[in-house]
Amino acid sequence: MAQYAILIYAKAHADEGEVIPGAREAHDRHFEDMVTSGALVATFALRPAADTATSIRGDVVTDGPFVDAKEVIAGIAIIEASDLDAALKIARANPATQQGGGVEVRPVEGGFIADRPAAA
Questions:
Q1: How many CB atoms within 10 Å of residue 15?
Q2: Pick from 22, 9, 2, 21: nearest CA to 94
Q3: Cβ density class 32-51: b for 16+ within 10 Å, e for less
C-alpha cells in the first residue's frame, strides 16, 4: 500500500462567530472512520498559525506562518491507500472540505516516527 499525506487547510483568521456548529464532532467521526478502516497511519492537529507559528528563512526569524495567506495548514494525516483514487476518496470525506477549508493530497516519499518510551 502506498502512503499519502493529507494536508488539511482552514481559514487563517476564523472568528469565534465563524465556527460551524458540530464541526469538531464531524472531524472526530472522520478520524474514527479512518481508524476503523485501517487507513490511518498518523495524524496531527496544529494550533492556529496566526498565534503560534514562527517562520525561518535563511537567517531571518519572523512571527507568523511562512506565507501570508487566507488559508493555513490546520493539520496533517498520513494514510495508506491502494492508489491515488482511494486516497482522494478518503480525503474528500474530510469535513474541512465542507467547512470553508480544503485538503491537499500528496504521495509520501519517506517518513519516520520516533519510538518514544511511555510517560510514567
A1: 7
A2: 9
A3: eebeeeebbbebeeeeebee
**Cα–Cα nearest to 63, from 73, 51, 72:** 51
Cβ neighbourhood burial of 11 (10 Å; 0-12, 13-18, 19+): middle
Give burial (CB, 10 Å; 0-12/13-18/19+) of 73: middle
Q: Tell me the whole-structure pTM to 2 decimals.
A: 0.79
Rounded CA gap, 73 and 78, in Å? 14
**Alpha-carbon span 72 to 11, nearest angstrom:** 6
Interval 43-79: pLDDT, tens: 998 887 667 777 787 887 877 666 666 777 889 999 9
- Reduced to 3 states (helix: H, G, I; strand: E, B; else coil), residue 4 is strand
- Asked if residue 54 lies in contact with residue 61, where contact means CB atoms within 8 angstroms, the answer is yes
The type of residue at 68 is D
